[in-house]
Specification:
heterodimer; A: about 250 residues; mainly alpha; 12 helices; B: about 325 residues; alpha/beta; Rossmann fold; Alpha-Beta Plaits; 2 domains; six-stranded mixed β-sheet; four-stranded antiparallel β-sheet
Chain lengths: ~250, ~325
């Protein structure tokens, strides 16, 4: 009960932060849209993906949007830690999970808003999904699961980093990971090494599942792999974050 | 909730804390009476913040026992936390929130009813002269205002014991005086204050008792007057151009101590205008001229030198 009340209090604080510093949200929306223009209008025609490129790339862009939105979370978590704000909460006996929960939930809400914009623009650019209501719900569910997983990992990065700047940098690999997945080009068109990596990294299974749900036929196999990846990453992030949070003074 | 037997607000015995093989707190015993100000005086790196972290339940000591407000720091952590307020070395205010929102955030986290939280926040803003700035984000506050807001946030929970880790480090003299006034008012209301400081003057101005911390050990404890008796007093330092002048001056001023290498004399005295004039007149009468004159009043370095036999900077450099 206390953890819910305290998490809600901290979430109100995160909400105010986002309102006062709209640049974080703005970046999370604009960067993926710029990337989408680049991919669909400039590079996309050069890729032979077998379907309309907007349809192919949109699921990948959803993933990219999630990754672009997390850097402010890592920075914010770290500055709470290094500024002494967390120590203040500790001696107040506030629920230990509240602050971290709030960061993850805020990240999720920010990502969902950004994704809504990105998908909206995708429609304008020719994205024509074949998904019905159940597929859409499935896609939204997977997106939420993915953000939670990446959100907890990011919070853990933020806690582990020494300074807010290095925390922000910790998010960079996550921003690059979509390019080494099937987000924009099918993995089987990549060179050796990159191809094996792309085929087996978590983002590919998530993106393939989204792609199946939105524009094709969902495959149970990739869905199970995707969910397993999300659950695994979320657990690692959660445990790592809670341990760092308790340990570090 | 203070231990009625001995009126002790904070009691610690045999505290030890090491990080890997570096011992930061090395067997500290403390006893702080309820309703008093206790100052832990020491240079950077002496172990002040670690001591505060152990006393406030943020860190578990490797050895030793802490009793705060009558509760065991190891087993009754909650009760200890309910009784204390902590203001850290760096003002831990939320920069993006306004002063008022920062206070209301604390009220919410303490689960105060909404209207009571607002009343408490309003009173604190008023008391700390932050009413005008209440609606502005804390990022726009000056250093002094941030410290005041930080302390106000600590006070939302009405703690009986307040820990202040270097409350005035980095503040301008005026803000420092304001902070001192606030601290005095808190004690007048019956709060116990445990503060750490690098400044002898601050401990002198505020504290009922002072403990001097050096490399994790307490090297002295007592009232300001007691400590000062152990510190060499003010002196005037005179430097001369050549040896004959130094020899002559040393004969004229038999109370002084000389340093042949530096060609200086150390003359005890308060450095006041009257005594300085008298000193210079004595030299003039014998036509001795000093190259350079400086007045030296005891500071933390002198306390350290007197109590530990090494300067506080050596600790810094470690």
């Amino acid at each position: 009960m206390k953890v819910m009340v305290d998490s809600a209090t901290m979430l109100r604080r995160n909400f105010r932060h986002t309102m006062r510093n709209p640049l974080a949200l703005f970046n999370a929306i604009v960067m993926p849209i710029v990337l989408m223009f680049l991919m669909v209008y400039i590079l996309g025609d050069a890729f032979d993906v077998g379907v309309d490129y907007a349809d192919y790339a949109t699921p990948g862009l959803i993933m990219t949007t999630i990754c672009y939105g997390i850097s402010p979370t890592a920075t914010a978590v770290n500055s709470d830690m290094t500024s002494g704000f967390v120590n203040r909460l500790r001696v107040m006996d506030v629920s230990r999970a509240a602050l971290l929960n709030a960061h993850v939930i805020a990240t999720m809400l920010r990502s969902l808003v950004a994704i809504a914009f990105v998908v909206g623009v995708a429609f304008l650019m020719g994205f024509r999904p074949s998904a019905g209501l159940p597929e859409w719900l499935g896609a939204i569910g997977l997106v939420v699961l993915t953000v939670v997983a990446i959100g907890w990992l990011t919070v853990a990065f933020g806690l582990a980093a020494k300074t807010p700047e290095s925390a922000g940098l910790a998010a960079v690999p996550l921003m690059l990971l979509p390019f080494l997945s099937s987000a924009f080009v099918p993995a089987d068109k990549m060179g050796p090494g990159a191809r094996q990596f792309a085929e087996h990294q978590p983002f590919t299974s998530i993106i393939e599942t989204l792609r199946g749900l939105l524009t094709g036929t969902p495959s149970a196999g990739s869905a199970i792999t995707a969910i397993a990846w999300c659950a695994g990453l979320a657990s690692i992030g959660y445990v790592w974050a809670r341990v760092s949070f308790t340990k570090r003074v | 909730m203070v231990d009625a037997m001995n009126g002790s607000a904070i009691a610690a015995s045999g505290l030890r804390k090491a990080y890997k093989d570096k011992v930061v707190v090395d067997g500290i015993d403390l006893d702080v009476r309820a309703g008093t100000i206790f100052a832990l005086l020491g240079p950077n790196g002496a172990g002040k913040t670690t001591t505060v972290n152990v006393l406030t339940t943020l860190l578990a000591p490797d050895a030793g026992k802490v009793v705060v407000a009558g509760h065991d720091g190891a087993t009754e952590t909650r009760a200890v936390r309910a009784a204390i307020g902590v203001t850290g070395q760096f003002a831990s205010v939320d920069d993006l929130l306004t002063g008022e929102e920062n206070l209301l955030l604390m009220a919410d986290l303490l689960h105060l009813p909404k209207d009571r939280g607002r009343r408490v926040a309003g009173r604190l803003l008023d008391r700390f002269d932050l009413v005008e700035a209440a609606g502005k984000p804390a990022v726009s506050y000056s250093g002094g205002m941030r410290r005041k807001l930080d302390l106000a946030m600590t006070l939302v929970g009405k703690p009986q014991i307040i820990f202040l880790d270097e409350p005035t480090t980095g503040l301008d003299p005026r803000s420092r005086r304001t902070m001192w006034e606030i601290i005095r008012e808190l004690v007048a209301d019956g709060t116990t204050i445990f503060l750490t400081t690098q400044y002898l003057e601050e401990a002198d101005q505020l504290a009922d008792r002072i403990a001097v911390l050096d490399r994790g050990r307490l090297v002295a404890e007592g009232t300001a007057a007691e400590l000062k008796r152990r510190v060499p007093g003010s002196h005037v330092r005179l430097r001369f151009a050549h040896r004959p002048a130094l020899d002559l001056a040393a004969r004229i001023l038999p109370e002084s101590t000389r340093d042949d290498e530096e060609l200086t004399l150390r003359v005890p005295g308060d450095g006041g205008v009257r005594s300085l004039r008298a000193l210079l007149e004595r030299l003039d009468a014998h036509s001795v001229e000093a190259e350079e004159l400086s007045v030296h009043t005891p500071d933390l370095d002198d306390v350290f030198l007197a109590l530990t036999g090494h300067a506080s900077k050596e600790v810094n450099a470690r």
